Amino acid sequence: MMPAVDFEDYRPMLLGLAYRLLGSMWDAEDVVQEAWLRWQGTDRGQIREPRAFLVTVVSRLALDQLRSARVKREAYTGPWLPEPVTTAEAGPLDTAELRDTVSYATLHMMEKLSPPERAVFVLREAFELPYDQIAEIVGSSVANARQMHRRASVRLAEGRDRFQPSAEDHAKLLAKFMEAAAGGDLGALTDLFHEDVVAWNDGGGKVRAALRPIVGRHKVLAFLEGLLSRYDFTEARVVDVNGGPAVWTRVGDGNQLVVVDIRDGLVRGIYTVLNPDKLERVRPPL
Fold first, then answer.
1. How distant, in Å, are the alpha carbons of 17, 147, 170, 184, 213 from that of 56?
2. pTM metric for this prediction
3. Which of 74, 130, 140, 152 has the largest count of CB atoms under 10 Å?
């Protein structure tokens, strides 16, 4: 007789899987709830491997949702950025691969992948599923699943450091960024920025924000200079988001979260989330 299995034992892992596939914890929760309903209606005595069964159900539901979500994101006002979550909500982070695939920069870059490529990459990298199981989930041959993983890995490698900065180095650079921004020190910010730095701002049409990515050190600095002249950034706080530090601060009457991506020891990407709908899960320490 098969031992009793509690769905709740798997829920954190399943939420982490769905979130990596969708970039939205709201959508991930819907997917996992639907998986729970299907689990309730299944003869569980016939399921030999509950984890594999649930991973398959959640992955397929998330794939269906991701395909429809891509159409909505193309019509989104301004750049669409993933919904940030506190690290505690991101599910198990026991391996470097689990931490890397939930990092904010990686989630953003995964938007470049097709839904099947994203699923193959996440299932292989983060959850170490064999290719035959992955192929069954995405509805492809094993050879095609391998090719999709290879393509996804190459595309994502183009935007990432071969050697990721340590948590300590990331925190130190972020502290320098906060200090320079709070003091309006553009010279110090210049020294921190990669020549090809890009700034994305997600207001979702609900908050005023740049409608296109801002590319290049000079343009990003000019954009920040305008913000620093209008807003006070001295009340910034560090929060633990998507497995790393980020900056939460007030801007006018609203809030914003700033995540920086580091390459070659410099800030290569600045992700600013202002859409209030995407900030409900992130709260600064009291």
1. 11, 20, 35, 50, 36
2. 0.92
3. 152
Contact 25, 281 (CB under 8 A): yes
Q: Which amino acid is residue 102, in one-letter code?
A: V
Task: Identify the CA nearest to 103 among candidates 115, 118, 117, 93.
Answer: 93
Which of these three, 157, 184, 214, is where a domain ends?
A: 157
Instruction: Give residue 117's domain range.
Output: 7-157
270, 220 contact by CB (below 8 A) = yes
CATH number at residue 177: 3.10.450.50
Q: Are residues 130 and 179 in the same domain?
A: no
Tokens of 174: 């972020």
Q: pLDDT tens digits, residue range 199-249?
A: 999 999 999 999 999 999 999 999 998 887 777 666 788 999 999 999 998
Residues 171 and 258 in one domain: yes
